[in-house]
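Design job #97: recover the sequence.
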């Protein structure tokens, strides 16, 4: 068994790298770089290996925020693109695995400790059953995980880009507002950093308020401090829509292993989750309300879930 490997979690804004002990799954040499500092992933990875004096490590697994369907990888919310085979050869790697970022987050779920997740609402989790994960950051990631007798099968997907469905008058206005700006309205248009900023402008228009744009960080800060009613309404709408999508994922694969919310945004907004409509929207599925009420929901608070998931995935691949 290989002792050490390098794992990476590449988002639309930041690139996270770490060395991992494949026996214990312990992470060290964790470094975060702005993606914009490098022209390519290969340059970022090579810089990390050199800076951390890890050039002897030849096994690498990378989670990246885009579909991974074949050798050519193109990021959705950043300009990096690369050939997996060419990058492997360029860096002289023995193993170079690239997977969707939420495939990696899905793979981390069985390895989470009790202190790395927070349960919200009713329901119980049966870890022998399918699980779902979604998370808002620069974009919106979605994935599923299927336990088997021989390990776990992650199911990558682009569920953040399906159709978003309005449920009430306010949301019908938001739907029309976003459609006028973007055409297709997906959950990612609301449930992401840029989505929160768009929601702010949409709700301002709905309420007839003249306002300047705010960043997602500013909106979140005002909502947490309860210093701006419009910002509070934006985050309330964010959680309502997030709960509805989470409930859809639960129904899609009967995820009695639980639905897990990751990403960079929700853990920072935890104080506002309890009083939100997240869980009620999760359960409000008509004739299947009682079905979803049995399914547990969690927020993933682990510091580096993408890196941990890469490590679990690579360990399983090398052991097979």
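Job complete. Output follows.
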């Amino acid at each position: 068994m290989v002792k050490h490997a390098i794992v990476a979690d590449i988002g639309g804004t930041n690139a996270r790298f770490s060395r991992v002990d494949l026996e214990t799954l312990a992470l060290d040499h964790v470094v975060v770089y702005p993606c914009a500092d490098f022209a390519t992933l290969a340059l970022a990875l090579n810089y990390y290996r050199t800076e951390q004096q890890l050039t002897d490590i030849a096994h690498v697994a990378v989670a990246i925020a885009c579909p991974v369907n074949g050798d050519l990888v193109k990021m959705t919310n950043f300009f990096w693109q690369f050939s997996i085979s060419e990058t492997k050869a360029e860096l002289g790697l023995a193993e170079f695995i690239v997977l969707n970022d939420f495939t990696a987050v899905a793979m981390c779920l069985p390895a989470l400790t009790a202190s790395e997740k927070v349960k919200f609402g009713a329901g119980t989790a049966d870890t022998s059953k399918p699980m779902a994960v979604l998370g808002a950051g620069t974009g919106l990631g979605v994935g599923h995980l299927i336990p088997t007798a021989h390990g776990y099968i992650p199911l990558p997907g682009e569920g953040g880009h399906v159709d978003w469905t309005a449920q009430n008058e306010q949301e019908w206005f938001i739907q029309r507002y976003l459609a006028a700006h973007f055409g297709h309205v997906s959950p990612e248009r609301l449930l992401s950093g840029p989505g929160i900023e768009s929601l702010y402008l949409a709700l301002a228009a709905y309420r007839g308020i003249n306002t300047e744009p705010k960043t997602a960080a500013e909106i979140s800060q005002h909502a947490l401090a309860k210093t701006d009613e419009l910002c509070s309404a934006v985050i309330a709408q964010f959680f309502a829509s997030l709960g509805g999508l989470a409930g859809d994922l639960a129904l899609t694969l009967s995820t009695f292993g639980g639905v897990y919310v990751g990403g960079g945004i929700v853990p920072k907004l935890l104080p506002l989750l309890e009083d939100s409509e997240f869980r009620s929207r999760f359960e409000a599925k008509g004739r299947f309300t009682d079905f979803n009420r049995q399914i547990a929901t969690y927020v993933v608070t682990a510091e580096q879930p993408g890196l941990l998931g890469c490590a679990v995935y690579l360990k399983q691949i090398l052991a097979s």
